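Workshop exercise sheet. Pairs work together: one partner reads the sequence aloud, the other fills in the structure field after running the prediction. Swap roles for the next sheet.
Pair: D.N. / O.F.
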Amino acid sequence: MTPPKPADSAKPVTPPPAADKPADKPAEAPKVEAKAEAKADAKVDTSAFVPGDTSSYTLRTDFGYGGQNFGNEQGIDHTGFHFKIAPGLMFRLFDDRLRVPVRLFYGYQALNKDLGAGVESTATMHQVGVESGAGYAFHPTWFSAYGLLGLGAHIYNAPESRDGMKGAEFNKNPLLFPLSGAGFGLNLGAELCTWYDAVCAKAGYTHTFGLNPTLEVVDGPSSAMGFNPNGFNVGLGIDILRVVDNIRGGGVAKPRGSREESRKEDTPPEGAKPGEGAKPGEPTKPGEKPVEGPKPAPALTGVALFEAKRDENKKYAEQAQKAAAAAKSDLDIVKLGSTDAAKAKAMATDAVASFRIAL
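Structure field:
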């Protein structure tokens, strides 16, 4: 049996290294948890109208071509350029599938008819009023259809001339007459839209009621005559605010109803990489307590360190004493003068020395 070396028995006891203290992370955990809760509370408002969301507003501009039937039994005989601008609100329902615009509008319609021989019947129609309707998004971004109803006033104007060479031809009058008056206006429209309603192809129908112009001629004013023109317009509609939203969204604005809140369990804690679990001292989910790491071993100092070293030296002393007893027993068995006896004696001497050092 080989006794331990004296050098080993005299080694000072090194206290176990103190683990990294995770006390800082638990201290910061409430802040992390508060941030996670703030993100969870920042839900997307899916109300029909959100004042701070630009998708709740609309600014439409329409360009196209239109015409009117002036009662000359020639159908739509006065035609020209059509323009309309309509700012307003946009209400979005059922996860942004049903869209209800409410707008004020101003429209302009140029009306011209070539009568030959350098003579032209000309007039203009101005429209003001309010329009609304409903649209359904068959695809949240790329395809929707609208039906619109507009009510307001249609105001007609034609150049004034008493010689019948300037003005408008209407109600089968052989001469051109000035036209100035307004009537109740009804507008109907249908639209097919794309790019989150930024661009629409549109068609509309207009009808004017109660327009009773009085003709001013050489013989004096005539009695009012009933005149109820109707017509159409086709063109392209562009919603400026939707174009801005799409540009800001990197090409296509995300529909409000599809901005779903991320699931809390799929949201990694702040500072953690995707796919990694929560680190000690960080919350796994909002509202949960931080994960606690292994508790560090207490550092030995002062009296505790002295007692630990004393107990370890005592253990080495007991081992040395047992080795010395074993060596002495071997020495009694082996005859004196033999090589084995000398070796046993040397081992005994070393064991006794180790015992004394340990003490």
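Discussion prompt: Residues 267 and 285 are 8 Å apart (CA to CA). What would you look at next?
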